[in-house]
Specification:
Blueprint lengths: L2 E7 L3 H9 L1 H7 L4 E3 L7 E5 L8 E9 L3 E8 L3 H4 L3 E11 L2 E9 L13 H14 L13
Antiparallel strand pairs: 1-7, 2-3, 3-4, 4-5, 5-6, 6-7
Helix pairs in contact: 1-2
Length: 148
């Protein structure tokens, strides 16, 4: 199964890449979660949250082209239901379009009929990323701050 999300964000590829890979920034728009990695191909990454008992996700950096493309494998750990789904893949592609970036996120290699928790948060996460980069503020939509 595959889910694709596309967002136009008024920012630069450099600022978008930094927001995607800096744990302090990911915590702002990703439900309070931080992505921890050195972002080199073959390196591990972990998703953490100060309010969680342990890691919420883990995986491997498959490909990293700063300011252009990031591909990771991920195993979600936040519930038994998503853990049972196993490993999936997430591809982030950044394309500059004049003074804007198109961010295309493809979440694939999911089981047919995958549990909605595995991919259902993407619209809120990406809306939070867009809000953060365009306004410098946090998205305060109910749910977006549920784990902060």
């Amino acid at each position: 199964m595959e889910k694709i999300f596309e967002y136009y964000i008024k920012t630069t590829p450099e600022k978008l890449w930094a927001a995607m890979t800096d744990p302090e920034q990911t915590a702002i728009y990703y439900f309070g979660n931080s992505y921890i990695s050195d972002w080199a191909p073959g390196s591990a990454f972990t998703t953490t949250n100060p309010n969680a008992d342990g890691p919420l996700g883990e995986g491997t950096v498959v490909e990293a082209e700063p300011n252009h493309k990031l591909v990771v494998t991920m195993t979600a750990l936040w519930s038994e239901a998503v853990l049972a789904e196993g490993e999936s893949r997430i591809t982030y592609e950044i394309t500059q379009v004049e003074d804007t970036c198109l961010l295309k996120v493809t979440h694939d290699r999911m089981n047919a009929g995958a549990h909605g928790e595995l991919y259902g948060g993407w619209p809120m996460i990406l809306s939070g990323l867009k809000t953060w980069l365009e306004t410098g503020e946090r998205l305060t939509t109910p749910g977006s701050l549920m784990y902060t």
